[in-house]
Write a structure and sequence with these properties.
The complex is a heterodimer of chains A (about 350) and B (about 280).
Chain A: H1 2-10, H2 18-47, H3 52-57, H4 63-72, H5 79-91, H6 105-140, H7 145-159, H8 162-176, H9 201-208, H10 211-248, H11 251-258, H12 263-271, H13 276-293, H14 295-300, H15 306-315, H16 319-347
Chain B: E1 2-15, E2 18-31, E3 34-38, H1 45-52, E4 61-63, E5 66-69, E6 72-73, H2 79-85, E7 90-93, H3 97-100, H4 107-118, H5 123-136, H6 142-147, H7 155-167, E8 173-177, H8 185-201, E9 205-210, H9 213-219, E10 222-227, E11 230-236, H10 246-253
Parallel strand pairs in B: 3-9, 3-10, 7-8, 8-9
Antiparallel strand pairs in B: 1-2, 1-4, 1-5, 5-6, 10-11
Helix pairs in contact in B: 4-5, 4-7, 5-7, 7-8
Classes of the chains: A mainly alpha (about 350), B alpha/beta (about 280).
Chain lengths: ~350, ~280
């Protein structure tokens, strides 16, 4: 008895507010995940049979130059100390110098990432705005011709190699028909007109009111974005269909019909509300996949994004750039996950 | 006065093994009374209720000479006309409120929606009406319940909410499809009493579908006994114990009774011939 009273007096701390607790837990889980990611990338950087010193000084450097750089990079310290240095640098946003162009990797990433973000965002928008309604209609009219078409569309999306579709797209819509702009983000004529604010040319040109640039940028992005959009549509529409099929056989759907609601209101007003949470996960995953996995598309369309940046870095043994790029992509995955967790709470009252 | 007149109702489902007949030529009428439909699972009692509301989705097929609501054949109506019948004239309470309420919508929104669909009024009026209706089903704190989500409600409360929601447009007929089967025994009677009172007050017709003979004989005026998609017997609810059909007798004998204790309860033995006998007319 006395003991509990004593404890109560010594800790007059009020319990944390739920929202504060939630935020702390989230931040904690981010830091743990990030730490794991950094550890893995660090270890990969060290076990690769690439000598970072040699890559900087070249093969003809004297032993003293070699040793100086060796020390400068901190390679003489114990590995755990090296990791702490690496950690400290990354926290400050410093991924080291690119061995290829001797510029900070963080600057490079800040330049190439918006290009990927622009492409992946447009691709995801296409995938969501076409894929979700297609999936819903396929589920509601199960077995109809529209369901069959949706099935074939998704199957083709799953199974066609993206580089082949990309090349065919370029050949037909750029080479033969001339409907779209070719590779790259802009024609040479339009380059460097608009000051870079966000790094996303569509946004920058819209902000600057340069509609000619906007049109040109759009004609360049529309083909690769549609291609990525098609892939995300294939996935999103299939998942939407199976989520909706499950909901349409639920009893509350019958309740809504008994009330005398129209079929459209039953579908969008009742059933669709119940798949939003699952759908968010699917869309977030597909978005993250496009941000990270559009390497082939970027290479075919000479898109100066993070995918082609990492690929080039990897092929020229520029480990700092590879690791920096990997960490950034990992961070995006984590952020999208947290974002979808937050939306869960908004859309599903049961998760509160 | 006859509210509903069902003549020769069939419900069929095409399957790989041929056509499955869930309901096979059922005829009955419903006035301002409480009609019980009893039978084991698979006897077609739920399908009968759903066929009246035309809730059987393709590939299911509903055929009948007529399903007439005050003289209008429901099977001849367009889907749009049928929507005016659902909720507004015939309504239905289903088995388990855990599944029959939309989990991501507030209770209040779901009740108001039922009222707003059939009444051209503002939100404030619909809200007032919903609160009134929640009070009518003995919910103590209707303001709080309006804001709550279905998962925050107990089963008994959920089913009372369901009843409020289905009665708010003031229908003439309520189909209660096993309304208490998912509920705890202790709240079954409470929920049934509330439903019973409302149905009597409003002079509605009630179709009470259940497998529970005791509940049906207590809360109904007339009983139809269904077996294998047909009506095998019909009688007044208070004369259920005098039922003649061997199936009904078998069901009654397999119930434990306090006043006639037995060491071993009878087991129902089914005669395949029961399924072949034509349906008995269920007209009052």
């Amino acid at each position: 008895m006395a003991l509990t009273e004593d404890k109560g007096e010594r800790h007059p701390r009020a319990p944390l507010a739920p929202w504060l607790r939630g935020t702390l837990v989230t931040l904690g889980s981010i830091s743990v995940t990030m730490l794991g990611l950094l550890l893995v990338t660090f270890v990969i950087g060290r076990v690769m049979p690439i000598d970072p010193v040699l890559a900087i000084v070249g093969e003809r450097a004297s032993q003293s130059t070699y040793d100086a750089v060796y020390e400068q990079l901190g390679l003489d310290k114990p590995i755990i100390v090296q990791f702490l240095y690496y950690l400290g640098d990354v926290v400050r946003g410093d991924f080291g110098m690119s061995l290829l162009n001797a510029r900070p990797v963080s600057e490079d990433i800040a330049r190439v990432f918006p290009a990927t973000l622009e492409l992946a965002t447009l691709g995801t928008l296409i995938g969501v705005f076409l894929g979700v309604p297609l999936g819903v209609i396929a589920a509601v009219r199960r077995g109809s011709w529209i369901d069959q078409i949706a099935r074939v569309v998704a199957l083709v999306g799953y199974s066609m190699p993206i580089f082949w579709l990309g090349l065919m797209g370029l050949l037909i819509f750029y080479g033969i028909l001339g409907w779209v702009g070719g590779p790259g983000r802009l024609d040479i004529f339009y380059q460097d007109i608009v000051p870079s604010r966000t790094g996303m040319i569509l946004l920058d040109s819209a902000i600057a009111g340069e509609w000619g640039v906007f049109r040109n940028a759009f004609s360049h992005i529309v083909l690769p974005a549609s291609l990525l959009g098609y892939y995300s549509l294939a996935y999103i529409s299939r998942m939407t269909r199976s989520f909706m099929l499950e909901q349409m056989s639920a009893e509350y759907v019958t309740t809504a019909r008994v009330k005398g609601m129209s079929e459209r209101a039953v579908i969008w007003g009742h059933a669709f509300k119940n798949i939003r949470v699952q759908l968010i996960t699917v869309i977030a995953l597909s978005y993250a996949n496009l941000l990270e996995g559009s390497v082939l598309t970027e290479i075919i369309f000479s898109w100066p994004g993070i995918g082609s940046y990492i690929t080039t870095a990897l092929l020229s043994a520029d480990m700092n750039a590879v690791l920096g790029g990997t960490v950034v992509i990992g961070l995006i995955f984590i952020c999208l996950n947290i974002f979808s967790d937050l939306l869960y709470k908004v859309f599903d009252p049961r998760s509160k | 006065m006859t509210l509903l007149d069902v003549q020769d109702l069939w419900v069929k489902f095409p399957t790989r093994q041929g056509i499955f007949e869930a309901v096979r030529g059922v005829s009955f009428t419903l006035g301002k009374e409480r009609l019980g439909i009893v039978g084991e699972s698979g006897s077609g009692k739920s399908m009968t209720g759903r066929a009246i509301l035309r809730l059987i989705r393709p590939p299911g097929i509903v055929e009948a000479d007529h399903v007439a609501l005050e003289g209008t054949d429901l099977l001849g109506l367009s889907e749009k006309q049928m929507r005016k019948v659902r909720g507004e004239r015939i309504s239905m309470v289903m088995q388990d409120p855990k599944f029959s309420l939309n989990p991501v919508m507030r209770v209040g929104d779901q009740i108001m929606e039922a009222y707003l669909l059939h009444n051209q009024v503002g939100k404030a009026e619909a809200r007032a009406k919903s609160l009134e209706m929640l009070q009518a089903v003995s919910i103590r704190d209707p303001e709080r319940v309006m804001r709550a989500y279905p998962h925050e409600m107990s089963g008994g409360m959920g089913q009372r909410i369901m009843i409020a929601m289905m009665l708010i447009p003031n229908p003439q007929i309520l189909i209660a499809d096993e309304p208490t089967s998912a509920l705890d025994v202790s709240v079954q009677r409470q929920v049934l009493n509330i439903m019973d009172d409302l149905v009597k007050q409003r002079g509605m017709g009630l179709i009470f579908i259940s497998h529970d003979l005791n509940l049906v004989s207590e809360f109904c005026d007339r009983v139809l006994i269904m077996y294998a998609g047909r009506i095998v017997e019909t009688c007044a609810a208070d004369r259920l114990h005098e039922a003649q059909h061997p199936y009904t007798r078998g069901l009654l004998n397999s119930l434990p009774r306090l006043d006639q204790p037995r060491r071993k309860l009878d087991v129902l033995t089914r005669d395949p011939a029961w399924a072949e006998v034509p349906s008995v007319g269920g007209k009052a």
